[in-house]
Amino acid sequence: MFTSLFSDKDKTVADHQLYEAQLDKESYDINSMAKLTLGSAAEHITVTVEIEKDGKIIMTQLVELNNSRKTIIIPVLASDVGGFAVHTSFAAFNEFKSQSFNVSVPYPKTDLNIETTTFRDKLQPGQDETWSFKIKGPKGDKVSAELLASMYDTSLDEFRTHNWNFNPINNPVYHGRLGKNSRQSFGNTNFRVFNNFYTDVTYPYQGYDELNWFGFYFGNNYRYLSKSKRLSSPEAVAMVSDSAELEEVVTVGYGEAAENKTALNNLNGAVSGLNITSGSGQPGSDSSIILRGTGSITGNSEPLFIINGNIATETQFRSIEASDILEYKILKAEEGTALYGEKGKNGVIIITTNQDLSDLQKVKIRKNLNETAFFFPQLQTDKEGNVSFNFTAPEALTKWKLQLLAHTKTLESAVTKLETVTQKELMVIPNAPRFLREGDEITISTKIANLTDNELSGVAQLILTDAVTGKSIDTELSNSNNTSNFIVDAKGNTQVSWSLNIPKNIQAVQYKVIAKAGDFSDGEQNALPVLSNRMLVTETLPMWIRSNQTKTFTLDKLKNNTSTTLSHHKLTLEMTSNPAWYAVQALPYLMEYPYECNEQTFSRYYANALAQHIVKSNPKIEAVFNQWKSTDALLSNLEKNQELKSLLIQETPWLRDAESETEQKNESRYYST
């Protein structure tokens, strides 16, 4: 590596420098001058300078160098946008030298500038939002532009990154096409001898006897085969006492109960000083809670009371009606200190009441979990270049990617990306699968996030319903004990989970995960299709019969089937004098495609156009539709919930064949509109 130092005043060249050439700038504006400086320390050197534009040599000039430097001025014209080339060459001392330069002439700037006027990078789910932007021209001037805006869940980029590239103006950069070669004018003949000899040497592999670890040995790590069994009896949980335990407290285990009676009976006696009495002798009537005082030489040793997620006093604990206790949990000193610090050193009693369960039902549930927020293709700016749009923030708790594309009529453009997050102070984030399968034993876990500056304790609940009928199916899915207490640190996360068994004959499960801690709450609702382990097979037999004709038909596959797992679903006989009726009944499938892509949009258009043609050409069919339309039939839950309907069509389309006749009538009534 070497460095050359130049002087504008000195016209000589460094000693022993045969040739040098350089431009004074890297790029040039229109109507400027490009300066090409040539120099040589030799005498009587003639350099040929050629200027190439659009693939043609438009000027040739001979420059005489005699131990000197000379500068050539080249005007840059408007037609030179994109650049041009300059070639230099000479021959001296039995040697040929050439050098070329691509002169850069940038195109006028066409980039717009999108400035943020109103934008929030943190949103509350479901809130109404207005964002504003200002679009300026390449020189900061006002422009009239059109804006395309869209926003989607950033996690989709994990599958495939989605970015907008908009380069409507083709601005090619010019590269010189002229090349010079001295060929053999001053060349030398080269001679090489290739006599390399390669030898491949190997040595035999020596094997040794090894123990068969049967899959329990992996490298230098040890693996142990173990089997654990969870005991269902609370008395089987062993507890280790410590020096700071409650006086006369005898803990029988971490017991939880789903019914009030069980909770009361287990709580009574779990702490030796805690008694629940009933005046009438019947559980839940005139009940009272009595906690015998605790004593200690070192001072107060009463436990910490947590009622419905909030720290309570002993007086508040005593005032609870025994019949209001839904669930309880007792933590001994070590675990209580780990979760609640110094306050829990004497143990913790956590109580969940029926009132807290009632408060959970009032929590606002997030239902719109779409992965796309909005798509606005034609937003127009005002005279000042301002543009704004309104939308409702998505209810999914995630990071969102906003993309903006602005352009003018002259194709000046700009693309901008921004990110925002939907979040709450307390958030439930279920880790639910995409679908369920009959016979599954699955654990639904939920992360509870706390964005506040304080530790929160509260109650979480999982509610399961049949998405089609709307009936509760907690019992059918072994979710009888559907509440769980939680404690989450400030700015931290915790996890709760429920174990479920998926039964048969359920098409879809709608779940609600709700959490409440003090004044903070959150909930999420979604539907999961249930896939069967069996396949629905439909055998059809067309029967064509003319008037006054008798025929016998046999369903051979049904009659001769020897499958041991076959389970018959139903046998249907349909009769019509007009075969067009079958086409009409098949059209709703095309009309219900959920997406707006070209293929499905055309399918919906085709189905509606064909239905309209059939109705108009068959007055009797139209009369039937009008009769159905006049019937005041109630819509099913499936018809009311369009998102669930789309989900079932996508995941289990064969289940739609089992709809009732009333359901099919409700679908077909639109043909006459």
Q: How many helix segments?
A: 11
Tell me roughly what share of residues is in helical segments.
Answer: 10-25%
User: For the residues shown, what is the average pLDDT?
Assistant: 77
Strand-pairing-aware structural class: alpha+beta
| Dominant shape | extended
CATH class of the largest domain: Mainly Beta
Largest sheet: 5 strands, mixed
Notable features of this structure?
single chain, 673 residues, alpha+beta, Immunoglobulin-like, 5 domains, five-stranded mixed β-sheet, 11 helices, 31 strands, 15% helix
Q: How would you describe this structure to a colleague?
A:
The structure is a single chain. The protein has 673 residues and is of the alpha+beta class. The protein folds into five domains: 20-103, Macroglobulin (MG2) domain (Immunoglobulin-like, Sandwich); 113-169 and 367-422, Sandwich (Immunoglobulin-like), CATH 2.60.40.1930; 246-346, no CATH class; 426-531, Immunoglobulin-like (Sandwich), CATH 2.60.40; 578-672, no CATH class. It is built from eleven helices and 31 strands. It has a five-stranded mixed beta sheet with strand order 9-23-22-11-20, with no helix packed on it. Strands 25-31-30-27-28 form a five-stranded mixed beta sheet, covered by helices on one side. Strands 4-3-6-7 form a four-stranded antiparallel beta sheet, with no helix packed on it. The protein is extended, with a radius of gyration of 41 Å. The model is unreliable at 190-198, 220-266, 268-273, 278-288 and 290-299 (pLDDT under 50). InterPro entries: A2M_N_BRD, Alpha-macroglob_thiol-ester_cl, Macroglobln_a2, Plug_dom, Plug_dom_sf, YfhM-like. One of its GO terms (molecular function) is endopeptidase inhibitor activity. Residues 372-462 form the Alpha-2-macroglobulin domain. Residues 19-159 form the Alpha-2-macroglobulin bait region domain. This is TonB-dependent receptor.
